[in-house]
């Protein structure tokens, strides 16, 4: 029987194989950890919607209803008007355009025709409110005459009549109102005017009316921007817009009574410098901690609605963590305190209350820093290590504590930047309806007209009469604080 071949393994070859397997195992463990982290990041990204991120509600999928975002507590009352609510009814018009007296009809019991009776108009009235849209054409004719001396004189058309046929201020104002405020597309606006008034307009004509309005409103809108620069508190935000097939940015700077829009090819500091307003702003600027705003000379206040969404995302991703929930409760409690203080007519919160909020704020974030330490590069490596969203949030909240809590120390500052976000909502809807702006000039004209209309809307000034005055060469100037 043959003997088995002698083994050729040596101790040093076994050690080399063991070392190779250990290195391979370590590399595989590293890859598994990276893949697990990538899976967690992707799951967190899929789990984000409008309630735990900055994504707009319109991006929420229809099959997934996000949790309620409102912090209001249910009152328990039924929807609609409550008991003893005074209510309101449509009032009768004292000077109607038409009056119709309903005649008597039929026969009396005696056989006499009721139409032959002497009648008396009763005090009870009923009215029908309707809308009549019609075309109104005004024709101008010139005249000529001969003086006794033989000289011939001719009248001249008014300076405003530069063409054989043109559109009046009322029609131009309605067209701009439809396209720039109600955000109807140009083609549909032209169709509407054709159906209602029998006036045939091309979309290009409506575009020209918008640009004419922008040219007439350039001075009032510039004054609006300068007034915002002088304000104590202003809000800033930006959103992407498609212009001539490329991505540009619509910037807004606003207050509770003023709005200024500007379109720029850039989003950051270059755009803010090009627009030219924030270079002279020395008040408190409320924004969403976009780093470009921090380069301006203003004082800063961060939007805490963004922080609440980020904290909600952390709390949902890891329910074991308690500090995100504690910080959410603290911010909401501080906001309620500031709302109550303003309602009571206070100029500042009491000092002990402010100190208590800051102490709790620091304690909660110290716990957050403990659970989310900074990631360090491997020994000997100089490459930058990507930090977790939790660490970045904690670091930002600690570094910019004064900006985050500005609403507590200064009651003129609101809790969030919702004012600027609401001002961007309608221009964003314009893009969704119409797709994009065909040219930078069209986008700039829209920004100018929309600045004026948004400002008038905030000041409760009727828009259509103001646009009519604009096309007559006398645009009403809004109140500039």
Automatic annotation (TrEMBL):
<feature type="domain" description="DUF6444">
    <location>
        <begin position="11"/>
        <end position="90"/>
    </location>
</feature>
<feature type="compositionally biased region" description="Basic and acidic residues">
    <location>
        <begin position="81"/>
        <end position="92"/>
    </location>
</feature>
<feature type="compositionally biased region" description="Basic and acidic residues">
    <location>
        <begin position="43"/>
        <end position="52"/>
    </location>
</feature>
<dbReference type="InterPro" id="IPR004291">
    <property type="entry name" value="Transposase_IS66_central"/>
</dbReference>
<feature type="domain" description="Transposase IS66 central">
    <location>
        <begin position="165"/>
        <end position="444"/>
    </location>
</feature>
<feature type="compositionally biased region" description="Basic residues">
    <location>
        <begin position="66"/>
        <end position="75"/>
    </location>
</feature>
<dbReference type="Pfam" id="PF03050">
    <property type="entry name" value="DDE_Tnp_IS66"/>
</dbReference>
<feature type="region of interest" description="Disordered">
    <location>
        <begin position="43"/>
        <end position="92"/>
    </location>
</feature>
<dbReference type="InterPro" id="IPR052344">
    <property type="entry name" value="Transposase-related"/>
</dbReference>
<dbReference type="Pfam" id="PF20042">
    <property type="entry name" value="DUF6444"/>
</dbReference>
<dbReference type="InterPro" id="IPR045618">
    <property type="entry name" value="DUF6444"/>
</dbReference>
<protein>
    <submittedName>
        <fullName>Transposase</fullName>
    </submittedName>
</protein>
């Amino acid at each position: 029987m043959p003997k088995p071949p002698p083994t050729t393994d040596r101790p040093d070859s076994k050690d080399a194989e063991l070392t190779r397997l250990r290195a391979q195992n370590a590399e595989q463990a590293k890859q598994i950890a990276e893949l697990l982290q990538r899976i967690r990041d992707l799951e967190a990204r899929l789990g984000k919607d409008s309630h735990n991120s900055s994504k707009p509600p319109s991006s929420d999928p229809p099959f997934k209803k996000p949790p309620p975002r409102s912090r209001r507590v249910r009152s328990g009352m039924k929807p609609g008007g409550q008991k003893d609510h005074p209510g309101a009814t449509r009032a009768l018009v004292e000077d109607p355009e038409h009056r119709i007296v309903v005649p008597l009809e039929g026969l009396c019991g005696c056989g006499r025709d009721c139409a032959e009776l002497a009648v008396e108009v009763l005090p009870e009235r009923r009215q029908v409110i309707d809308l009549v849209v019609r075309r109104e054409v005004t024709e101008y004719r010139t005249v000529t005459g001969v003086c006794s001396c033989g000289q011939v004189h001719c009248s001249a058309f008014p300076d405003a009549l530069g063409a054989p046929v043109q559109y009046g201020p009322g029609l131009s104002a309605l067209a701009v109102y439809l396209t720039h405020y109600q955000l109807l597309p140009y083609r549909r606006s032209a169709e509407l005017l054709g159906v209602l008034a029998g006036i045939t307009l091309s979309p290009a004509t409506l575009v020209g009316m918008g640009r004419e309005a922008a040219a007439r409103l350039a001075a009032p809108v510039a004054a609006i921007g300068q007034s915002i620069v002088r304000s104590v508190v202003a809000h800033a935000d930006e959103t992407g817009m498609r212009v001539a097939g490329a991505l540009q940015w619509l910037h807004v700077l606003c207050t509770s009574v003023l709005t200024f829009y500007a379109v720029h090819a850039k989003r950051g500091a270059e755009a803010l410098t090009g627009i030219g307003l924030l270079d002279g702003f020395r008040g408190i600027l409320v924004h969403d901690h976009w780093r470009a705003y921090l380069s301006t000379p203003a004082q800063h206040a961060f939007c805490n609605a963004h922080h609440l969404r980020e904290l909600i995302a952390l709390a949902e991703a890891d329910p074991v963590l308690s500090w995100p929930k504690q910080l959410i409760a603290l911010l909401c409690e501080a906001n309620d305190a500031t709302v109550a203080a303003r309602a009571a007519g206070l100029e500042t919160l009491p000092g002990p209350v402010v100190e208590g909020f800051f102490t709790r704020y620091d304690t909660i974030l110290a716990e957050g820093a403990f659970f989310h330490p900074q990631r360090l590069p491997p020994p000997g490596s100089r490459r930058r290590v990507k930090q977790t969203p939790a660490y970045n949030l904690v670091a930002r909240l600690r570094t910019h504590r004064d900006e985050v809590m500005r609403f507590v120390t200064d009651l003129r500052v609101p809790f969030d930047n919702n004012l600027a976000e609401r001002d961007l909502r309608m221009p964003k809807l314009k893009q969704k309806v119409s797709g994009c702006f065909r040219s930078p000039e069209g986008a700039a004209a829209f920004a100018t007209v929309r600045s004026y209309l948004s400002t008038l809307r905030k000041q409760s000034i009727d828009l259509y009469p103001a646009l009519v005055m604009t096309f007559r060469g006398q645009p009403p100037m809004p109140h500039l604080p």
